Amino acid sequence: MTFEELEHTADVLVRVRAASINELFADAARALFSVMYGPCRDAGIVQRLTVEAGDPESLLHDFLSELLFIADVENVVLCRFELDVGEGSLSAVMHGEPFDPAKHAGGTIIKGISYSGLRIVKDDETYGVDVLFDV
């Protein structure tokens, strides 16, 4: 995993680093599900999603918010993400397993994704972003 949880007084803050923008978005999604549900395995659940937004930060915010909605409404835990992030849009094929209270109930409930401090940066070799999960 290429994310780490950082200290935060009230919410959950994760720092994500990746070699590409596709990996950055995928690792941010994995961080979201890891905080909420812990370990997950690919057990045949497949979801497809397309998101559009005006800038990369809004695209990441809207993508993660859609994942929260899908997890809540469809009772799934997603763990593998195949993404194609383009200019102002992304398409995703996501894999996971059905929610199992005995296995997945020990995580942190995330109510939303914050725009606070959400800024995607790129240096010579990596992309990075800090994402604040509202709990």
Please explain how this structure is put together:
The chain is of the alpha+beta class and 135 residues long. It has a single domain (13-134), classed as Archease, Possible Chaperone, Chain: A, domain 1 (3-Layer(bab) Sandwich), CATH 3.55.10.10. It has three helices and eight strands. It has helices at 21-37, 56-74, 101-104, and strands at 3-6, 12-18, 45-52, 76-86, 89-98, 112-113, 121-122, 127-134. The strands form two sheets. Strands 1, 2, 6, 7 and 8 form a five-stranded antiparallel beta sheet that branches. A three-stranded antiparallel beta sheet has the order 3-5-4. Helix 1 (21-37) runs parallel beside helix 2. The model has no long low-confidence stretch (mean pLDDT 95).
Compact description:
Belongs to the archease family. The protein has 135 residues and is α+β, with helices and mostly antiparallel strands.
Describe the secondary-structure layout.
Layout: E1 3-6, E2 12-18, H1 21-37, E3 45-52, H2 56-74, E4 76-86, E5 89-98, H3 101-104, E6 112-113, E7 121-122, E8 127-134
Antiparallel strand pairs: 1-2, 2-8, 3-5, 4-5, 6-8, 7-8
Helix pairs in contact: 1-2
Domain Archease: 3-135
Family: Belongs to the archease family.
InterPro entries: Archease, Archease_dom, Archease_dom_sf
- What is the CATH T-level topology? Archease, Possible Chaperone, Chain: A, domain 1
Q: Helical segment tally? A: 3
CATH homology superfamily name: Archease domain
Give the biggest sheet: 5 strands, antiparallel
What is Rg?
A: 14 Å
SSE-based structural type: alpha+beta
Q: How much of the sequence is in beta strands?
A: 35-45%
